[in-house]
Amino acid sequence: MAKYECEKCGMSIGVMTCGKCETELSHSTITKPDGSSVHISECRNGHGKVKSPMCCGQDMSCEIA
Fold this sequence. Notes:
The protein has strands at 4-5, 12-13, 26-31, 37-42, 49-51, 54-55, 58-59. The protein is built from no helices and 7 strands.
């Protein structure tokens, strides 16, 4: 299970699922044109992806299993 956690305050978010197929979203990253990377959560069945949650003004991180 992917668990996002704020490195500043410790707030965490558990399972997030796709609204179309109810599959648990998997954690990944994408590289932007400027070379920086962004944490994302994406549907394993190809229904799309969203930017990772934010807390304390920064992206929450998630270990990739």
